[in-house]
Design brief:
By secondary structure, the chain is mainly α. The protein is built from 53 helices and 4 strands. It holds the Pfam family Ank_2.
C-alpha cells in the first residue's frame, strides 16, 4: 500500500476501470487463493489453505499489503456486482480482523453473506472466532446462516466457544444456532466449552438443552463428563480445579451418567472430591455401583496405582468381597489388606476365584502383603485348579521382562540378554518372597510340562541366591518342564555363568537333548563361547550326539566360525571338540564349513581325522556352489585328498563366480573341452569371458548371444564401452553366418547393445515391426532409455507402422521427447482420447514446464484433436484457478471440434472390440 500511495502522490493516475482498472483489480485479487470445497482443517500450521504464510500477520495484509490495496481500489471503482469467488475469502478475512467498513463494502457489492469454504469456514464463523461482536450482530441481522458446517472450527457456535466469547455464544443461540450440531466425529460444542475451562459457557449450553451424555467416537474424552474430569488433570491452578469440580457438578445435576471410564479418570487424577462426587451420584441414580467400582479397582491395580487414599475411598462405598480382596492384595497396600481381613475376608480367598490372595500378592511381588498373609495362616500350596504355585508365580513375575526379550530376539545364536531389564529391587523382592515361602513350607520343585520349574526360572533370571536356596530345599536338576526343559538350558540362555557352574558341579545330565537346541554343547557352540565349551566337555558332554536336524556340535561350531568369515577366525572350538573325542562322525557339511575357513590347517586336520574316505566330485561341486569366494589354498587341499581328481565339466557348469573360477583354475590345471552349453550355463560375465579366452573359436549360438546380453557388466558407466558389447565384438564378426533374431533384440539392456545387433541385422524393411510394438507394450517396465531405444528402432526401419493403440502404454509416464520421436516418425498419427489421457493424466501435479513441453510438441506438429468429454474434464480439472486461464486456453487451441454423440458411441464400440482383440492377441503370444 505504501508503494501505491507514493505512486499516486507522485502524479500517477489510476486507469479507468474498463481501460486497465479491471486488470489491476484482478492482479491484486490473485493474492487471495484457496480451496473453497475443503471442509476440515486440523491445524493452523499444517492446514494453511486460504491463509498468507509469508507475511508478519493478517493485519499487515489488510493495513499495508494486498488487502489494503484491494479495499482502496474497490472504493475508487464502481465494479457493480463482485462475482469472483475469491472475494468470499477476502470477506472472511475482513470479518476475522473486524474491519466493519470493508465488510459493509463487500456486502454492498453483492458478495454472498454466507460465503463458505477455505480455512475460516464462513463469514460468521470467522467473526465469531475472534470475538467481533459488532460484525456478528450485523451479519445475523442480515440473515447469516448460523449452522454452516465447514472450516477449521466447523460451526460458528464452536468457533465462539473455542474463543471463549460468551456474548457471541449467547447471541448465536438466540438466532437459532444448534448446540447439538457437530462435524462427523468431532467434539461437540459442550466438549469445546469444557476443554477451554469456560464454566459460564457450560452453564449456558446446559440451560439450552445440550445433551450431557453425548458420546464422541475417536476421541480420548468420549463424554462431556470425561472431558471435565480430564481437564482437572491439567492442574493449572487450584481455581481451575474448583471450576472443573463446579462444571462436573453442573453436568451431574443436568443428568450426566457416571460410568467406569469417568470414575477411573477421576481416580487417576487423584482429586478425592471429584471421586466422591461421582460415587455419590451413583447412589443418587439408584445404580448398583459394584460393577463400576470393580472395573475401576481392576484398572487401578493393573496400572500399579500407589494412591491408596483413592482405593480406600472406593472400598468405603462397596462391601468387601473375595474379588475386591484380590484387587487389594495386588495393590500392595498392607493397611487395606489388613482392613479387609478384619472385615472377614479369608486369607485363602474363595474357591469361586481362580487365584488365591497369596498367589496374587506373589505375582505382583508385594513382599509385605505376602508376609502378612502367611502370618495370618495362608496356605502356601497352589490350588489344584491352578498350575502356578506361589513360588513359581513369584519367579515368573521377576523373569517376565527377560522372557519377553528372549522371545523378541529368538533363542538360536543369541546369548547375551540385557540383565539390567530386571532391576536389583525387583530381584531382591523376589528373593525375599521365595525365602519366606520356603520357610513356611512351600515346595521347591513344582512345575508342569507347560510351566517352567522354579529352579529353571531362577537360573534364567540369574539369581545365584535363589537357585542355591531351591537346590538346598530339594529342587531337581534334571526335571524337564516348560520351554527351557532343564535348569542348565535356562542358565545358558540367561548367560549366568555362576549358576551354570553350580548346576554342573551338582551333577546335572549334561547330555540331555533339547528338542530345539540339541545338547547344551550344541547351544554353546552357536554362542561361540570357548570357556563354556571346555567346561561342558570337562563335565562329560558328548560331541557325538546329534540335534533334531542331525547335526553334531562340531558341525554347528564350524558353521558358526564360517559365518563370521575373515582370515584367521578362531578355530579353537572345533579343535577343542576334536581333542576331546575319540570317535567323530565327520560329515561333508563339516568339511565344507571347514573349507570356508582360513588358514587351511583345520581343513587338513579334519580330512586326516576322517581317514581314507576321499573327497568326491560332488563334495567339491557343493562347496563351489555354496561359497562364492573360495580360497585357492583350500581347493588345493580338497583336490589333494580326492585321489587324483581334476577339474571336470560338471564343476564348470554350476555358474562359478569369477573369483571361484580363478581359484579353481589355479588350484588345478584346466583341461576341459568348452562347449556352447557350458558357456550358456554361466552366470558371471568374467567367468564366461575367461572360458572363451581359454578356448578361442568356440561356436557362437543364439543362446550364447542372449546369455551375454542378459548379463550385468560390473563396470558399466555412461560413455564407456560395455564388457558385454566388447565380448560380442570379439566373437561375432560382421561376416558371420549367425542371424540376428527377435529374441536377441529383446534381450538387449542398453542402447550400445541394440546398436551392435542392428548393425549385424542389415536393411530392416519392416523386420523391426514386432520389436517396436514390443517396446511400446513394455511401457515403463522396459529397462533402459525408452525414448532413445525406440528412436533407434524407428530410425533403423522406416517401414514400421505405429497406431495410437500401440503407444497408449508407453506414453504413460513418458517425457515429451518420446512424443516428439513418435510424431516425427508417424506425422499422420491421430491423437485419440486414450492417447491424450496417457500423456495428460500422468501429470496431475506435474511441473508446469513439462505440460508446456507436451503442448508445444503437439502444436509444432500441427496436431488437432477431437475433444471428448474426458479430454475436456482432464484439462478443466488441471486448470481450475483463475491464474491458470491462459494455460487452459493453450490446450484448447488444439481442439479441432467436439466429438458428436454418434462418434462417441462408435468409438466406445471400437474400443470394446479392440479390447477383445487385444485379449486374444495376448493369449496367442502367451501360447507361443
Amino acid at each position: 500500500m505504501v508503494v501505491t500511495t507514493r505512486l499516486l502522490d507522485s502524479g500517477h493516475q489510476l486507469p479507468d476501470y474498463f481501460d486497465g482498472g479491471k486488470v489491476l483489480l484482478a492482479k491484486v485479487l490473485a493474492f487471495f487463493e484457496g480451496d473453497r470445497e475443503r471442509q476440515t482443517f486440523h491445524s493452523i500450521i499444517v492446514d494453511p489453505d486460504g491463509r498468507f504464510l509469508q507475511v508478519p500477520s493478517l493485519e499487515y495484509v489488510f493495513e499495508q499489503g494486498p488487502g489494503a490495496v484491494l479495499e482502496f481500489l474497490l472504493q475508487k471503482y464502481d465494479t457493480s456486482k463482485l462475482e469472483d469467488t475469491r472475494y468470499e475469502l477476502v470477506f472472511q478475512m475482513a470479518c476475522v480482523l473486524g474491519k466493519a467498513p470493508f465488510v459493509e463494502l463487500l456486502l454492498s457489492r453483492g458478495v454472498d453473506i454466507d460465503a463458505t469454504g477455505y480455512y475460516y469456514g464462513s463469514t460468521l464463523q470467522a467473526a465469531a472466532r475472534t470475538g467481533q461482536l459488532q460484525i456478528v450482530q450485523s451479519l445475523l441481522n442480515k440473515g447469516a446462516n448460523t449452522n454452516v458446517i465447514q472450516g477449521r472450527w466447523h460451526t460458528s457456535l464452536r468457533a465462539a466457544i473455542v474463543g471463549g466469547h460468551l456474548d457471541i455464544v449467547e447471541l448465536l443461540l438466540q438466532h437459532g444456532a444448534d448446540s447439538k450440531l457437530k462435524y462427523q466425529t468431532e467434539r461437540h460444542p459442550l466438549h469445546a466449552a469444557i476443554s477451554g475451562g469456560y464454566v459460564n459457557l457450560v452453564e449456558m449450553l446446559l440451560s439450552k438443552g445440550a445433551d450431557v451424555n453425548i458420546e464422541v467416537d475417536d476421541c480420548d474424552c468420549r463424554t462431556p463428563l470425561l472431558a471435565a474430569i480430564k481437564k482437572a488433570d491439567l492442574r493449572i491452578v487450584r481455581l481451575l480445579l474448583e471450576s472443573c469440580l463446579q462444571m462436573i457438578n453442573e453436568l451431574i445435576a443436568a443428568g450426566a451418567k457416571v460410568d467406569s471410564s469417568s470414575l477411573q479418570e477421576a481416580c487417576r487424577n487423584g482429586d478425592l472430591s471429584i471421586v466422591e462426587a461421582l460415587l455419590e451420584q451413583l447412589f443418587i441414580d439408584g445404580v448398583d455401583p459394584s460393577e463400576i467400582v470393580d472395573e475401576t479397582l481392576d484398572s487401578l491395580t493393573m496400572g500399579k496405582s500407589t494412591d491408596y487414599r483413592t482405593l480406600n475411598l472406593l472400598l468405603d462405598y462397596v462391601p468387601p468381597t473375595p474379588k475386591r480382596f484380590l484387587f487389594t492384595c495386588s495393590s500392595g497396600s498392607v493397611p487395606l489388606v489388613r482392613r479387609m481381613i478384619q472385615q472377614g475376608m479369608s486369607v485363602d480367598g474363595s474357591n469361586e476365584e481362580e487365584d488365591s490372595p497369596l498367589q496374587v500378592a506373589c505375582y505382583y511381588l508385594n513382599f509385605e502383603v505376602v508376609r502378612l498373609l502367611l502370618q495370618r495362616g495362608a496356605n502356601v500350596q497352589a490350588r489344584s485348579s491352578q498350575p502356578g504355585d506361589p513360588i513359581t508365580l513369584t519367579l515368573w513375575a521377576c523373569a517376565s521382562p527377560l522372557q519377553q526379550q528372549l522371545e523378541q530376539r529368538g533363542t538360536r545364536h543369541q546369548k547375551y540378554l540385557n540383565s539390567e531389564v530386571v532391576d536389583y529391587r525387583t530381584t531382591q523382592r523376589c528373593t525375599n518372597i521365595v525365602r519366606i515361602l520356603l520357610e513356611y513350607g512351600a515346595t521347591a520343585d513344582n512345575g508342569t510340562d507347560e510351566l517352567e520349574s522354579p529352579l529353571q526360572l531362577a537360573s534364567f533370571i540369574g539369581s545365584f541366591e535363589i537357585a542355591k536356596l531351591l537346590i538346598e530345599h530339594g529342587a531337581s536338576l534334571d526335571k524337564t518342564t516348560g520351554s527351557f526343559k532343564t535348569p542348565l538350558f535356562s542358565a545358558l540362555q540367561g548367560n549366568n555363568s555362576g549358576i551354570i557352574s553350580l548346576i554342573l558341579e551338582k551333577g546335572v545330565d549334561v547330555n540331555y537333548v533339547h528338542p530345539t537346541h540339541g545338547t547344551a554343547l550344541h547351544l554353546v557352540c552357536q554362542y561361540n563361547d570357548e570357556s563354556l565349551v571346555l567346561q561342558l566337555l570337562q563335565h562329560g558332554a558328548s560331541p557325538a550326539l546329534k540335534d533334531a536336524n542331525g547335526d553334531t556340535a562340531l558341525t554347528l561350531a564350524l558353521q558358526s566360525a564360517a559365518s563370521r568369515s575373515g582370515y584367521g577366525v578362531s578355530q579353537k572350538i572345533p579343535r577343542l571338540i576334536c581333542q576331546h573325542s575319540t570317535t567323530l562322525d565327520i560329515t561333508d557339511s563339516d568339511i565344507i564349513a571347514a573349507a570356508r575357513l582360513e588358514p587351511s590347517d583345520l581343513l587338513s586336520f579334519l580330512l586326516v581325522k576322517r581317514g581314507e574316505q576321499p573327497v568326491s566330485e560332488d563334495l567339491i561341486i557343493r562347496f563351489l556352489s555354496e561359497e562364492r569366494r573360495p580360497s585357492q589354498e583350500n581347493l588345493e587341499v580338497l583336490f589333494d585328498h580326492s585321489g587324483g581328481l581334476e577339474i571336470t565339466p560338471r564343476m564348470l557348469n554350476i555358474g562359478l563366480s569369477k573369483h571361484a573360477f580363478n581359484s579353481l583354475s589355479k588350484a588345478r590345471e584346466l583341461s576341459v573341452h568348452i562347449t556352447p552349453d557350458m558357456l550358456e550355463s554361466q552366470t558371471d560375465l568374467g567367468t564366461l569371458k575367461a572360458l572363451i579366452e581359454y578356448q578361442p573359436g568356440v561356436e557362437v549360438t543364439e543362446g550364447l548371444v542372449i546369455k551375454i546380453l542378459s548379463m550385468n557388466s560390473p563396470y558399466r558407466m555412461w560413455g564407456q564401452p560395455e564388457e558385454n558389447t566388447e565380448l560380442l565384438l570379439s566373437i561375432w564378426p560382421r561376416n558371420s553366418s549367425l542371424l540376428v533374431t527377435d529374441s536377441m533384440l529383446k534381450a538387449t539392456t542398453s542402447l550400445l547393445q541394440l546398436k551392435f545387433l542392428l548393425e549385424r541385422l542389415g536393411p530392416a524393411h519392416g523386420k523391426l515391426q514386432d520389436i517396436a510394438i514390443w517396446i511400446c507394450e513394455k511401457g515403463t517396465e522396459y529397462s533402459g532409455n525408452q525414448a532413445d531405444i525406440l528412436a533407434l528402432v524407428l530410425q533403423s526401419d522406416s517401414d514400421i507402422k505405429l497406431s495410437p493403440s500401440h503407444l497408449e502404454k508407453i506414453m504413460l509416464g513418458a517425457k515429451p521427447l518420446m512424443l516428439e520421436i513418435v510424431l516425427t516418425h508417424t506425422p499422420s498419427l491421430s491423437i485419440t482420447e486414450k492417447l491424450f489421457l496417457s500423456i495428460f493424466r500422468e501429470y496431475p501435479r506435474a511441473r508446469e514446464e513439462t505440460r508446456k513441453e507436451f503442448v508445444e510438441v503437439l502444436m509444432r506438429h500441427k496436431k488437432k484433436i477431437v475433444f471428448t468429454e474426458k479430454i475436456r474434464d482432464a484439462i478443466d480439472k488441471a486448470y481450475q484457478e483463475h491464474s491458470d486461464i491462459e494455460k487452459r486456453e493453450e490446450w484448447y487451441t488444439l481442439r479441432e471440434r467436439d466429438e458428436t454423440q454418434e462418434e462417441a458411441e462408435a468409438r466406445r464400440s471400437e474400443e470394446n472390440d479392440g479390447n477383445k482383440n487385444d485379449d486374444h492377441i495376448s493369449l496367442t503370444r502367451q501360447d507361443r
